[in-house]
Amino acid sequence: MSWVFQQDNAAVHNARLTKDFFRENNITLLDHPACSPDLNPIENIWGWMAREVYKNGHQFQTVDALCEAIFTTWSNVPTSLLETLASSMPKRIFEVINKNGGATHY
């Protein structure tokens, strides 16, 4: 099986260890220019989840407690959020086109 993987150009993704993993596992990386707009709505979900997990400045005493909070939050992502993000895709794409691939407000 041939794999092609897309990722942004965040520093952690460009680390030698990460690059070595992809090369050693024969995974092709899709060319993705630096500072390109992120059209992946999962980023919005990660942001929502982080705000929920750490709401009111909540801190966790154990990794298990943090994991439980993350899994509970993931299980409770509102359907309305998913629908809103999915329906925003045409606007996101239109904005990227209008800005010639430049930064968007998303």
From TrEMBL:
One of the Pfam families matching this protein, by short name: DDE_3
Segment forming the signal sequence: none
Family matches, as InterPro entries: RNaseH_sf, Tc1-like_DDE_dom
Ranges of residues in domain Tc1-like transposase DDE: 7-66
Protein name: Tc1-like transposase DDE domain-containing protein
Species this chain originates from: Sphaeramia orbicularis
An example Gene Ontology molecular-function term: nucleic acid binding
